[in-house]
Amino acid sequence: MKKRGGLFWFQLGFTLLIVSFLIVPVILSMLAGLTVNYQSGLESGLTFRWVTAVWEGYRQTIFLSIALALASLAATLVLGVPAAYVLARARGGWARAIEELLVMPVAVPGLATALALIVAYGTWGGFRTSWTFILVGHVLFTLPFMVRSVLAVMHAIDLKTLEEGAASLGASFGQRFFQVILPNCRSGILAGALMVVTLSMGEFNMTWLLHTPLTKTLPVGLADAYASLRLEIGSAYTLVFFVMIVPLLVAIQWAAREPRARRMERA
Amino acid sequence: MSGNDALRPVSVRLERCGKTFADGTKALEPLDLEIAAGETAVFLGPSGCGKTTTLRLIAGLEMPDPGGRVLFDGVDVTALPVEKRNVGLVFQSYALFPNMDVRGNVAYGLRVRGMAKTEREKRVDEMLAMMRIEALAHRRIDQLSGGQRQRVALARALAVRPRALLLDEPLTALDAKLRDVLRVEIDALLRRLGITAIYVTHDQAEAMALGDRIVVMDHGRVAQAGTPREIYQAPATRFVAEFIGTMNRLAGRCESGRFVTAAGAIPWPEAPAGAREILFRPEAVRLAADGETPHLAGEVISAFFMGDHTRLFVAAGEAAPLVVEAAARRPFARGDKVGLVVDPAAVLTLKDNA
Predict the structure, then answer these.
(1) B26 vs B18: CA distance, rounded Å
(2) CB of B279 within 8 A of CB of B348?
(3) Which of A164, A169, A186 comes nearest B108 by C-beta?
């Protein structure tokens, strides 16, 4: 084997240093959630007490966050994919203008959007206290990410010619859309879906204003826990968050994989 | 091939079909055109001449301006969208579906028609065999070369037994050698199937080789329609004369059965009265043999050895040099004085302002 020079060891050391700088806080936080007393360190022993406490006190926030993320995903798929299709097929300047306008909810601070929603719809009886009030905010915020990532793929493939090819073979609009357009935009839809789910899960700014005591989401609960309870409980909360979101993201990746690849895996 | 008796070609007629795009561009002046059943018509012209627009009108991908009509076998199909016209389309960019393998692509048109599986499979096998791509049946589209892709595209378009096959620059994306091979294949295929085919190209060699009839287009108008021979030997306009092949041109005047130019006189008994210019192809002019009296005298500007002949560019008193195909036996150098003999039976002129 080639003898490695000093530069190699220096680079390796530097990389490890950076990696540990990033990863150590995450590990420490997770450990804190499992430590009996964080002040006295690991010698105080490990426990699931805090995790159990989080589960008992805050599991509603976890379920609500997952429900919100999936509902946002459904809404952005139903609204965003057709919108991207229309924008991709339209050639006029107005379509480009709408594309630019779409990023507005991302550029405007979440708090401002939330305030606007409250001012406009806050007095609509049951709506204000329903979880769908938060959903509206999340969809506003995440829709641009879905539209943009689907649009990027649609611009990259020759959408118009593909569709004309399918039409010449006798395919109706519905057949073209579901059998040709959607499958070929799979990668954009997947990328958009991952963005929507993760952004909705972690959204705090807007949700903090939109929530009611009965519609607390996971990040809002996390802020609650950090502010009012022991550090260990907040950390255990983070741990639960990881355990929830990682399998969800993996599942979405898997579901969006090409059917062929999935078949081959099973075989 | 079994079952191709069901392939019934139609005649295609365009009546006053013009096309103005939404931005006001006039792509096509109102046009009348008839393509016979089973005929291969080639639309030829430079980019922007309206040839692709005409094809798209026939396909149903564009609507003609009000007043224009498209008829298949005399039946008005103007209002039918592309998916109801049953025409096969082959694109320059192939337009194959990347989410399906080769079989899936070829079967797609049959699938959307709801054809039963066994019959469908049989038809797909036939098509793959016809295009000699059986071995590629389960390949993904991105694993195919350009030539293979275009074969799949042809199989896909023909699988549904279209009433006409429309090809939009199908060979333009391929390299020269493959283009020649596939051109011969497409020609053989169209003859064998007897399908009405409309082929759009900017390549005159392709048009000559494939077309029963060539429709030369320029600026949204038909410049000339005729057999390849007519178009080549009797161009109707200056545009056609210059777009198809190479055309030599000399200015001069008629004088007692001869056409007198700055470089000499060419005998031309049938010269039309008042002809001011003479046109002839490179193969209608040769170098004068020893002792023969040349018609024209000129000086070699450049010479390209082509193997079987040498292509000479000869200055003969005009801004544009004459192109001459000389036998390849002797070498030529810049500045060589040459005498030229023109075949009087192969010269022509154009009507004024044609």
Answers:
(1) 8
(2) yes
(3) A169
Residue B95 contacts residue A165 (beta carbons within 8 Å): yes
Least CA distance to A184: which residue of chain B? B99
pLDDT, residue B6, reads 57
- Supply B61's token pair: 């991908």
Contact assignment for A165 to B82 by CB distance below 8 Å: no
- pLDDT score recorded for residue B213: 95
Establish if A169 touches chain B: CB-CB under 8 angstroms.
Answer: yes
Distance from the Cα of B160 to chain A's closest Cα (Å) equals 7
Sketch out chain B's domains with CATH numbers: 4-243 (3.40.50.300), 248-346 (2.40.50.140)
Nearest residue, CB atoms, A170 vs list B97, B98, B113: B113
Cα separation, A84 vs B216, whole angstroms: 40
Q: Mind listing the pLDDT tens digit for each residue in A63-113?
A: 888 899 999 999 999 999 999 999 988 877 888 888 888 888 778 888 888
pLDDT in tens, B6-42: 578 899 999 999 999 888 888 899 999 999 999 999 9
Write out the DSSP string of A49-113: HHHHHHHHHHHHHHHHHHHHHHHHHHHHHHHHHHHHHHHHH--SHHHHHHHHHTTHHHHS-HHHH
Full 3-state SS string of chain B: CCCHHHCCCCCEEEEEEEEECCCCCEEEEEEEEEECCCCEEEEECCCCCCHHHHHHHHHCCCCCCCCCEEEECCEECCCCCHHHHCEEEECCCCCCCCCCEHHHHHHHHHHHCCCCHHHHHHHHHHHHHHCCCHHHCCCEHHHCCHHHHHHHHHHHHHHCCCCEEEEECCCCCCCHHHHHHHHHHHHHHHHHHCCEEEEEECCHHHHHHHCCEEEEEECCEEEEEECHHHHHHCCCCHHHHHHCCCCEEEEEEEECCEEEECCEEEECCCCCCCCCEEEECHHHEEECCCCCCCCEEEEEEEEEECCCEEEEEEECCCCCCEEEEEECCCCCCCCCEEEEEECHHHCECCCCCC
pLDDT of res. B3? 43
Predicted TM-score (pTM) of this structure: 0.80
- Pick the residue of B21, B87, B99, B113 with the most A CBs within 10 A to test the interface with A by mutation: B99
Residue A49 touches chain B, beta carbons under 8 Å: no
Backbone angles phi, psi at A93, to 5 degrees: -65, -25
Domains with residue ranges and CATH for chain A: 58-266 (1.10.3720.10)
Residue A265 in this model has a pLDDT that exceeds 60: no
pLDDT band (50, 70, 90) for residue B5:
very low
